[in-house]
Specification:
The complex is a heterotrimer of chains A (358), B (361) and C (307). By secondary structure, chain A is mostly helical. Chain A contains 14 helices and two strands; from the N terminus they run E-H-H-H-H-H-H-H-H-H-H-H-H-H-H-E. The longest helix of chain A is centred in the C-terminal third of the chain and has 28 residues, at 243-270. By secondary structure, chain C is mostly helical. The chains are: A mainly alpha (358), B alpha/beta (361), C mainly alpha (307). The A-B interface holds A 40-41, 45, 57, 59-60, 63, 163, 167-168, 176-180, 183, 196, 198, 265, 268-272, 274-279, 310-311, 314-315, 317-319, 321, 324 and B 15, 17-18, 21-22, 33, 67, 69-77, 79-81, 83-85, 87-88, 98-99, 102, 110, 122, 161-164, 167, 192, 346-347, 349, 359-361.
Chain lengths: 358, 361, 307
Amino acid sequence: MLDLALVPRTERSRSAPIVVPLIAVVLTLICGTLLLSLIGKSPAAVVHSFFIQPLSSLNGIGEIILKAGPLILIAQGLAIGYRANVWNIGAEGQLIVGAIAGATLAIIFETSNSVFLLPAMMLAGAAAGAAWAGIAAFLRVRFSASEILTSFMLSSVALQLLYYLVTGPLRDPMGMNFPQSIVFGSAALFDVLIPGTRSNMSIFVGLAATVLAWFFMSRTIHGFRLVVGGMAPDAARYAGYSSARAIWLSLLIGGACAGLAGVGEVAGPLGMLQRNLSPGYGYAAIIVAFLGGLNPIGIVFAALLMALLYVGGDFAVVSAGVPNASATILQGMLLVFYLAASLLFTHRIVRKSVKVAA
Amino acid sequence: MTTRRELLALTASAVALAATANAARAEGKVKMGFIYPSPVGDVGWAHELDEGRKKIVEKFGDKVEAVTAENIPEGPDAARTMNQMIADGAKLLMIGSFGYMNDGLKLAKQYPDVAIINASGYKLDANFGNFQTRNYETSYIAGLAAGYVTTSNILGVVAAYPIPEVIGIINAFTLGAQKTNPEITVKIVWLNSWFDPNKSQEAARSLVAAKADVLFSLYQDTPEVVALAEELGVYSISTSSDMKKYAPKKYLMGMGIDWSPHFIDVAAQVLAGSFKGTSYWGGMKDGAVHAASLTPDLTPEQKKVTDDAIAAITAGTFHPLTGPVMDQDGTEKLAAGVAIADGDMASINWLVKGVETRIPQ
Amino acid sequence: MIDTLVFVIGGMLAAATSILFASLGETVSERAGVLNLSVEGMMATGAAAAFGIATLSGSHALGFIGGGLAAGLLSMVFAALVLVFYANQVAAGLAVGILGLGISAFIGKPFEGNTIEKIPKLDIPGLSDVVLVGPILFHHDVMVYLACAMIFIVAYVLKRTQLGRMIRAVGENPQAAASNGIPVRLVRCGAIGFGGFMAGIGGAYLSTAYTALWAEGLISGRGWIAVALVVFGSWLPFRVALGAYLFGGISLLELSLQSHGVKLPSQLLSASPYLVTILLLAFISRDQYRLRLSRPMALGQTYRNES
């Protein structure tokens, strides 16, 4: 052990994208079971309820799809920005604003049966999410205010906006003053994907975003310019690309995706606008984006893994009796281990005796 | 405060519980699932619901198996927990919050053979019932006592949201206080948050600064307001649980809740296969609510007044909201001698005269 | 009226104390060039650990130390990620924040909803009885004064000491600092650890002194407010402290106005600290020269020393 050393890589590793997540998962499993056996839970039972049970019923699979949908969608949008060094961490707020915009249409056209209602809601949600993120882009481009801080703080503002609307203008007039809107009509809802489960067609929005993200990043000149414009503003300006454009594009795409995911929630499992819109999808998607190596395909797997952790967490609470904090701890561990193991993307382990000068 | 020994015992019993839960799986007991919006803790809403669950287990022994999930937010994830319990074979679901109503109703339609009961909701179906308690009956008693003990004639309420149940409780409380002390005014701080102990504690302080000398902790799941009242030397009232242990000197009254009569009734129906979704609204006469730990500071005459009111409400001869009752603008809402109808009480959206704070819009 | 004045102005000092500890810690961390977004999770961990320790040991002092150390330990996970494994600061902060929230719920579970004796208020003979001034300034627990003292200590250390110069150098340009012989990673690690310890103390203040209760969700976003306040105060301890007291005062004023029957748009008030901070951020960032005076230029950038 002692004669091992880390040496920076000179070229991209081929195996790292597989090895790194694997290390993270294995370490999380080991530490997680250790932790749970500390409080007297049988590791086998916990692993079974966390990872096997959800996958052995249609209902469990449906729940995983339902949960992975918004994570994929948001993470694809965020990853584009992250590759360009634009740090939008306010997807939660963009999701909320998108959900509000979509829900407003569903509430105004409460009795509509039009097939255009849902597409219109999606459009409104994407536009609203993009506009919300656009505030951060404007502040960054015009005033060079850090988008990390502004996008994040705009999330807190969005949350208060939601609270105001569900206790005021958008509240169900017949809802006994409870802070929530009317229940939407069926024209404002996504169709069910697998009958008998809650999963719905909005997963295809996430998958479409995946294809688009892959195409955009690997096959178009815009994608290339975006990365260059963000990573090396001076070099980009020299080459005629603009870093302002990278900022605008990154935030608008990220915001639109998050806004769309917000519509997916109100027009999906919720079927109404309420205070608890998102169990932190906007933040979980940041984890997913990193866990997926900022790669469109990797993100799909990362989102499925995160969704499995959420759903498995519920199974473990109900069937194995573990505290519901354990799922949160496991998610935290997974990302911590992943970030640590990510060193292997840029470094490799060598024996000191054969160490080459780097 | 829980001592170390109690903690150890608690952990031991939790382990034992988990062990019995696993053992039960094999034997084909009737499974029942309980979902709480907040952590069970020592006191509060979820704690009282869980007490009801314990009574079911006590009563039916090894015929039933009860699983619980606590601190489940009223968001898109709640339905997953319900689904999960049904998939695990639960025949009865107790979903302990209004916010679970629509998800629960969807599941009830999907699984007609599963009985679901929903706390404080209002929708009904063949296999979907709702339940709540007539807390306004006990808050009226608390009001009577508050009217006697206050010297500033200002009573303070810390409340989350102006939903009808909360408004009804505040109205009965105010009318009770006015009965024993016509000079009463009631101030409310709306927290606009279901759960933020730091903020509710600050709200309680602000009410004391505004001269309130009785604090009403309305649906605060944690005991900080009661403990603070003791510290500041003012009286306190709490919903759901008896919180006397947090304020041994100045605790005015607890609005005790006992879900066990209803829960046992429902469980028996489910075991017999005869469950029908109904609206249960349990009051003093059902043993669902009671005045707990009423302060010993009342004189014998004052104590007699509260005792008589309890007797009259239990006998069904008196309703706390009986006219003449005016709203905050002085409009007569109930004519002399007329008691409010159950339907109007369930959707009440006006506060009585004497309450200073308005309902936020 | 006097009671209300005492409540708002006097209460402001105590209401701001937990956030003040956390934001002063974050200020030091950010001045060293490290953006640590895990404050919420660290505060929660500190709060749960302090409550547990104080309950079991019966000592508040042990509780505070334990809470600070628990959060400090957690911040070392963050430090390892960003300093040893070259992880992105934003991602590492979020990861450790989530971990911290999970850990706090886990260790706090046996104490859920319990209360504890608060630490006593100091009564200073003579001073505490002075009309108005007494109850506003001289009727608090020791941590309130300690938080005040920390403003001066942090400001002094950052501005006037060798250590402060090293911290600032590392935050401005770590490569240059390294070539001047400053141990960049050690300084950053210390700054992160200090930030973690302070966040833990802030959390401990809520659970053992201010509200004296542990429940999951006790922090309810105060950690994020602490992060925002550092920007609001443009990385200067006195301005950060001003922001914290202002924030505490405004939230108490809102409750106080409500209890006097004044109707308020409470959501607008709740959003105002963020809106003001966003505007202020735009204002101070607009002028690059002015910004350079306080904003650590290397904030958020990964430092690698091998290039």
